[in-house]
Each structure stands twice: as C-alpha cells, then as structure tokens.
Amino acid sequence: MLASSAPRSSARMTRSLLAADARVGPRDEAEGMSNVILEARGLDKFYGRTAALAAASLAITEGESLAIMGASGSGKTTLLHCLAGIITPDTGQVILRTRGTETDVAALDERERSRLRREAFGFVFQQGLLIPELTALENVAIALMLGGMPRAAAEGHAAGWLAALGLAGFEDRRIGQLSGGQAQRVAIARAQVTGASVVFADEPTGALDSHTSSEVMDALLHSTTGQGRTLVVVTHDADVAARCSRIVHMRDGRIQPSEVAA
C-alpha cells in the first residue's frame, strides 16, 4: 500500500493545502512530455459494432488538471475508465509512470488492476458513491483499512484530510446528514487519503448548484494539483472545465485537438 499522505496535524495539512495555487499554467511542450505520468496509446473500445473509443491517444503530465468534455456518447467516460483501469481497451496501451517504473495498465489482470486502483488512483464520482451506513470518518478511513492499515491509524489520517477540507466536527455524521457539497468533500478526502498519484473525477459537480460546485472544485484542485498530483475530470460543465489547466474534447470516440484553459 502506498504511504498515506495525511499530515501529522490537521492544521499543518490545512495550511499546506490552502496555501498552494490550484491553477497550473501552460507548460513548455518538451518539458511536459518529459514529465508524462499517464499516457493512452491508440485506444480502441467496441461495444458490439459501436466504437466507444477510436484510436484515442493522450498524454497527461504530472501535476496538471485535465478536463475531458464531450456530448453524451462521445466516449469521455469510457476513456476515463480505461485510463483508470476500471475497464480495458480492446486494443492499445495505457502507460502509468510512477517511481521510475512504467506499467501498462491495460495489460494487467483484474486483480492487479484492482490493486493499482486502490494504491495509485483516487476516484470522485457524481453521486460520491459513499457508504451511507458509515460516518464521514469511516468512509475515508476505509480506503486505508482495505490496504491493511490499522483502524486507529487510518482514522487519524482520515480526520486530518476531513479537517483540511473544512469538515472538522463532521467526522461522526452519516452521509445522509451532510449537504451535497459536504458529501463530495468526503469523497475528495477518500480519494486523497491513500496518497493517490492521479485522481479521476467523473462529473464531480453534476448534482450541485453553481455556488457549491465552485466550492467543491476549489477543494478538489487545492488537494490535487495544489499538492503536485494529477487530476483528470470528465464534465459537461464549461465553468468546471475552465478551472483546469487543459481541456480536451471528444467526439465519436475520438480525441479532438486540446486547448489550454483561459
């Protein structure tokens, strides 16, 4: 299991998260390519005769925030799922570069991909996919406990992340007792607590009003790119995409030319 990134004190964590600038500016192309953490190479994915992905290639650099946009059925969620090892492409490679090693995620079996998702990746979904029977603290701590960390230590790390994301005092509340924005911040804490190198967010603000959406994106960016981690967001929301350092559009399973967000 990757070492948890939770700090020794929630106060230090809060300062370190909120002091960082969450926006990542444009990179020199050569510099960016030398620091690629995740790369899709010629991905094809078919469902029957329908091509969900067609020769999709994409390089994602360490520390950037990338927004993937497109109409329903464009292939954006399929691409995210392939990048994250949730599904495998029919052809092509997904190369993860961490700690000086390269791993073809697409070539791993389900057990190996499950371990990789648990240790290297974090996930934030539209509905959070939190466990309603557990408290906010337990929902975050369980990510560490699944990797073998003792409960007391896991809950200590989880409490640090909740405090850093403005949820000190909410540790014992169940998910149904939280607002939509608070629940998404619990999901962000869960995604971050294992020290994930890459966080994938699938419509993380889709069920939220515009004000809460902005607050959730603040928290998501500060806790990922603000800490040198990588964020990949699938969204329909142009305002959410504009918060990211780069935007790619998808159409009919193909990646269109990318742009740097304003």
TrEMBL record:
Keywords: ATP-binding, Nucleotide-binding, Transport. Gene3D superfamilies: P-loop containing nucleotide triphosphate hydrolases. One of its GO terms (molecular function) is ATP hydrolysis activity. GO terms for cellular component: plasma membrane. InterPro entries: AAA+_ATPase, ABC_transporter-like_ATP-bd, ABC_transpr_LolD-like, MacB-like_ATP-bd, P-loop_NTPase. PROSITE patterns: ABC_TRANSPORTER_2. Residues 38-262 form the ABC transporter domain. This is Putative ABC transport system ATP-binding protein.
